[in-house]
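Minutes, project check-in

Agenda point 3 was the complex the collaborators sent over. CS summarized: two entities, 589 residues total, and the question is how they sit relative to each other. Sequences were read into the notes so everyone works from the same version.
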Amino acid sequence: MATKAHILKPGETAPRTVGRSLLLTLPIALWSLLMFANPQRQSNRSVQIASVMTAVFMIALFFMMMRTCSTFRWRRWFFVALGLLFPVGFIHNVMVMRGTMGIPIEEMIAGRTPFCYLPIPLLILPAAFTKTLLFPGSILPGGGMSGAGMAAMAGVWLAITLVVGKGWCSYACFFGGIEEGMASVPARAKLRKIDPRWRYGPWAVLLAMVLLSLALFEPAYCLWLCPFKAVSEYVAARNAVGMVQNGIFVVLFAGLVVALPLLTKKRTQCAFFCPFGAFQSIFNKTSVFDVKIDRTRCSPCVLCQNACPTMSLTTESVTRGETLMSCMKCGACVDACPKGAVVWHIKGTEVASNPERARLMFLYAAWGMAVMFGGSIIVEGLATIVHVFV
Amino acid sequence: MAACGPVVVPSLLTERAGLRPNARYLSAFLGARFLGYLLFAAVAWELGVLVSLPPGPRMLMVGVIYMLLAGVLLWYAYSAGHVCARSCSSSELVSISVTRKRGVSGAAALGFLTGLSLCPPFLAAGLRAAELGSLAAALLFFAVFFAGTSIWFVPFVGLGCVARNEAVTTVARMTMVLIGLYYACLGLSMLLGRKVYGN
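CS then shared the predicted structure for the full assembly.
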């Protein structure tokens, strides 16, 4: 019986064969096995099971990206899992180590808190002026961090950032998953008209927190504005100020991470608030990869603009054939374009000369990073859950 | 410089670009700050006990100043929206007023209030002023203190080189709102008679 042939739209890529997709998945599969086959962790049965589950999950998602030639929907599964499982593993660890999620200010100042990369850009200036690090987190068991440890972390971050730019926010950040999950719940956005000037919010938070951290010599963002304190650790409320601080955390989390993504179908915390995202945007200029609009194929249907979770596409930017510097390279616009006009691109090459090759190269870098950072967090969260049953 | 940065940087960024407008802003800011200093010096000398006030009333005073600072910052952000809505093309300094015709210079209001902020070095200087033999000596001491600390404001003139566009002025206004809210929270906590941190 003859089957009806699938007619490809302009720019649409045909699904790959299973064999070819498997072949393309092989490097990531090997990388995943290398990352998750840690003999030291394998002594714990829960971790063993969680590692296998995570490896299969990450490899399967990458395989589907190769097979279907689409990125966003598969990446979203990983990203939401990361966002949901991070608090599970984190809270479990904090409770085991401290018995409470509340961290006294003295502990925070002493740096005896779990390490968080988010406030680092906000504390560069105080560090430069005072030669003292204010990092509210440690990578050493007794608190604080070694120079070598910091240099290694900075080196890894720089290498990754130079390649993927703000792709960090879509493939490695463990904070954005919850809101992406929330944004994917409603079929349509109830709140469609958003003043584009809210896009400047992350820069304002960045500037305000840099200045306040410098003036007060304290990690102002961690003390006053971090929405994710609501699902990780919080300031131990021993007085009215502590209550106000925790109230702000909860309100910001409820508003920016839960309510507004549900109403707008956007990643509102990432798009309008996150200071680390603003800082990371700068490195979109140095990143090898970007997303371009092939003007010869584009009909101004604004589907890409509607799909973008961070409002990084405007009519003007589409006319220029590029995204704004806040683009997180999540792939939503590329997948949404029915004409194949929005394409992955390697800087210095012709736009749309071989977008699928550009996508592949980007994904190897980004997914490798996702396995390395996100994968270990997913393992930790899964192991916590598995431990209940095993 | 660090202590005044949260107030000066965003408000300066809402003004017109160029070294001259920025120098004019800083002149108004520093002039009013000088007045604040002199007022504090006079009161410190006259009362003699101001700086040795017990922590409770001192917190109350700082709380009031923080609340005023927060109010001025929020009002400034609102007023800057009228003066330089998109491109910040006004040649006048931003005024904070209800009628939008006549008002207090925003830079001067902020300068005066930061001049009254009771930071530790300022309190130490106040203590010294209180111990001096005459009011003139106290005023002179604070005038020199002002001159010494004002040098650190010179780098702020460099912000005049930052191009002003919708993005910069919007970010500056949003920053002012955030910092205003921060001072409001801090001030409110102090007015409620609470310690900021600790048991």
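Noted in discussion: Residues 10-47+59-191 of chain B form one domain.
Follow-up: revisit at the next meeting once the mutant set is ready.
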